[in-house]
Amino acid sequence: MINKTKRPKIAFFLDGPNLLRKEFEIDLNQIKNDLEAYGSVRESKVFLNQFAPDKLIEAIANHGFEPVIGVGEKKDDIASDVDVYVATAAVSAIYNPHIDIIALATRDADFLPVLQLAKRMGKEVFVIGIDSGFSKALQHAADTVIILKTKEQRKKMKKLQKN
Fold first, then answer.
1. Which of 21, 63, 77, 111 has fewest C-beta within 10 Å?
2. 31-56 mean pLDDT
3. Residue 110 carries which DSSP code?
4. pLDDT, tens digit, 9 for 90 and up, residues 93-135
5. What does the pLDDT average to over 146-160?
6. CB neighbour list of residue 45: distance below 8 Å, 6 or more residues apart
7. What's the CA gap between 50 and 66, in Å, rounded?
8. Taking the model in full, what pTM does it have?
9. What are the angstrom distances between the C-alpha of 151 and each of 18, 25, 55, 97, 148?
């Protein structure tokens, strides 16, 4: 039997507007499985803006993640960002003595100071992203980098495995 108290405790935060895009179609189960290989996920939040469709919010909740809706302005037909909400939650987890790993899913280099703070505070840092536009600065700052597969990449892999 696995002693769950010895497994590292993970706080996971996903920047929804940055990664939950139609062109990526990432698999939330893949993220959950990848993280569970490293420890026990104690906090898992997906940040969305107020323009997120109800079906997306429901799907996130159905995958066991906590949807968090950030409110902001819509400028020039660009939906509001949730970076401040993500950063605030991550900093809170950094100062939580019961959390060992901060896992951040984004491609956005704006989160580099959050990762640097986490490391200074003795936390292990994971970044999770998609190859397309994934900040090299974030990847270099992380202890562990997880590259997600898009729906198209997953299809190609299945096809190769069948042959």
1. 77
2. 94
3. G
4. 999 999 999 999 999 999 999 999 999 999 999 999 998 889 9
5. 80
6. 12, 13, 14, 65, 66, 67, 68, 89
7. 15
8. 0.87
9. 16, 5, 19, 37, 10
Note the residue count of the chain: 163
How many domains, in total, are found in the chain? 1
Question: Tokens for 48?
Answer: 């969305």
* H-assigned helices in the chain: 16-19, 28-36, 54-62, 83-94, 112-120, 136-141, 151-162
Inter-CA distances, 67 with 50, 90, 112, 142, Å: 11, 15, 23, 24
Place of tokens 């066991």: 64
| Average pLDDT score over residue span 36-63 | 94
Distance separating alpha carbons of residues 65 and 12, to the nearest angstrom: 9
Confidence check: pLDDT of 76 > 80 = no
Question: Which domain covers residue 55, as residue numbers?
Answer: 4-162
Paired tokens of 136: 């090299």
CATH number, domain of 96, equals 3.40.50.1010
Which tokens belong to 8? 């590292």
**Residue carrying the six token digits 């019961």:** 98
Q: At what angle do helices 83-94 and 112-120 cross, to 10 degrees?
A: 0
